[in-house]
Amino acid sequence: MSVNELIEKLNQCPTDVSILAALLQTEGEECEQLAVAAMDCMTREVGVEVYLRGLVEMSNVCIHNCYYCGIRRDADVARYTVTEQQIIDATKECSNLGYGSMVLQSGELPTDGYVDFVCRVVERMKKETRSDVQPDGVGITLSLGVLSKPQYQRLFDAGAHRFLLRIESSNEALFKKIHPPSQKLEERYVAIAHLAEIGFQTGTGVMIGLPTQTIQMLANDIVMFQQLDIDMVGMGPFLPSANTPMANWPIATPLERLQLGLNMIAVTRLACRDINIASTTALEALHPNGRNLGLAYGANVAMPNFSPFDKRSSYKLYDNKPVLNENIDAIAIIEKTGRPVARYQKGDPLHYFSRQGLKATD
Ligand code: 5AD
C-alpha cells in the first residue's frame, strides 16, 4: 500500500497499530511523501510557525541509574547545578531575542529543597520577563522527572505551566531492560496523570531505536500518546553513551535510527494532530542538519540550548552531543527551513485547549 493510502486509512482509524507500524517503516523515496503529508497535517492543525523554547540544563545531579544515560548516578561526570542568577540571565537573553518560552531540564532530584529552588527561579523568571508583548512573562516548561503531586502543584502555583515527562518506552519489558528495578513505568503514568489533573500542559516522549525495540513497540508508543491525551511530545533517537551499561548493546545504524526518528515525528503528527512536537538535539547528534530535518517532518517546536557554556560538556546524556554550536544564530538556522519563527509567543499546544473544549489565547 502506498504512503497516501496508508494515511487515508489512518485517518479512519488513528489508533490502528498495524497502519501506524506500516507508516513507520516508510523508506527510500516514499519518506518524502510521508514528510509532505505530515507537514500538510501540521499546517492544517497547528500552523507553520516554529515555536521557540530556550533550553537551560539546570543540573546534572540525578538519583537514578538508567542504563542508557550519560548523567546516571554512577557516571563519572563533574556534577553541577547552575545558579538562580544564571537561569535568570539566560531567560532575559532569550526573552530579548523574542523567545516566548523557556525549558528548564535536569536530572532527577525529588527533594523539597530542589523543588523550592525551582519554584523561586520560576517565580523570578515570570516576574522579570513581563513586557508589553508578554504581559505575564515567558512560558515555562519543566522537565525534572517524577515528583510527588504536591511538589508538582507547587511548581504549577509558582508559574510553570508545562511539564514534559518521558516514558522512554511504553513496552513494559523494554522499559525494564533499560532501567534498574527501582524505576517503574507505572510511576511515570501516575505522574503524568497528576500533571494533567493539576492543569499542566503535559508532554511525554520515548527513545527511538533502542536495542530490541520493534516497529510495533514504537507504533504502540504512539497509541499511548493518544490514550494519555498528551499535549506535547519530545522524542529522539537512542544514542549510545560510553561508560554506561548500554554503550555496546546492538542497535541499528545511525542512518536507520535517524530515519526512524524522523518517521516517528511524522507519524505522531498524523496520529495526534494538534499537539506540539519538538525537534530534539538527539537528531542533530546523528546529522549536522538533524533538527531542521525534524522540522521538515512535522515538528513545530525548537529548543536551542542556552545552558552556561562551561557546564554543557557535563550534561552529556550521550556521545557526540552537539554542545557548543548553539548561540544567538539559532533563529537564523531555523529560518533556513523557510518556516516562520514565532516571536514573543508562548506557543502553547493547541491540543491543551481542544481537549478541554477551550480556545487558545495567544
Ligand atoms: N540517547 C538518547 N536519549 C537519551 N536520553 C538519555 N540518555 C539518552 C541516550 N543515551 C534522553 C531520555 C531522557 C532525556 C533527558 O534524554 O529520553 O528522558
Please explain how this structure is put together.
The chain is an alpha/beta fold. The chain contains 14 helices and 9 strands. An 8-stranded parallel barrel has the order 1-2-3-4-5-7-8-9, surrounded by 5 helices. The site of 5'-deoxyadenosine (5AD) has 12 residues, from loops.
Mean pLDDT, all residues? 96
List each distinct ligand once. 5'-deoxyadenosine
The helix/strand series, from N terminus to C terminus, equals HHHEHEHEHEHHEEHEHEHHEHH
Give the helix proportion (percent range). Answer: 40-55%
The side-by-side strand order for the widest beta sheet comes to: 1-2-3-4-5-7-8-9
**Tally the helices: what do you get?**
14
User: What structural category characterises the helix and strand content?
Assistant: alpha/beta
Distance between the termini: 40 Å
SS strand fraction: 5-15%
Number of strands: 9
Per the principal axes of the C-alpha atoms, what is the gross shape? globular
* Rg result: 19 Å
Largest sheet: 8 strands, parallel, barrel
Low-confidence stretches: none
